[in-house]
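SAMPLE LOG
Freezer: B-3
Tube label: C17
Construct: single chain, 214 aa
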Amino acid sequence: MSGTFISFEGPDGAGKTSALQAITTQIKPVLGDQLVITREPGGNPISESIRAIILDRANTAMDYRTEALLYAAARRQHLAQTILPALAADKLVLCDRYVDSSVAYQGAGRQIGEDAVAQMNTFATDGLLPALTVYFDVPAEIGLRRIQAHRDPQKVDRLDVEQAAFHDRVRAAYLRLQAAHPDRIKLIDATQNRETVVTTALTLIRQAAQNYFD
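STRUCTURE (predicted):
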């Protein structure tokens, strides 16, 4: 595969999706069809259907391992149908969340085991990892305040309404992942102003995918 795969990660309220939207606005006119923007869970009709089940606030009875397996299933379909074909076509793929989210949210947040979730996703992805992961770091309390202040109540999902301790575990897991994989996962302090965060993220993307911008 000749394309470049970059993921965006962060706790809820870190602003990664807003940053991705801003970056897309800047680079889409340059890259055109070479740029693919996608998300997890989702990215194609089958994976989006699984997303709806996972995030539905009515599904309070969902078992934590069921949740992790559904994320892995959506990810596999996303890879097979969306990401791998784009990479084979030499495209730059920017993805809102990937495997690190499952390790942080299900492995640590749900406390079902970070290693177990990582192994599950190694099977689902056949070991494919991004060339770069841009991690937007923010303390849980700040992220949750942002969600309460700015997010449309209709878009608040099952994970957003978890207790603060859950979100603290998620952030701690992300920081462990970044420390373990510093060459792939680059940390941005997402408590900075939006312009600084976006500019820093775009610099990292240009460095990792320089051939698209030459």
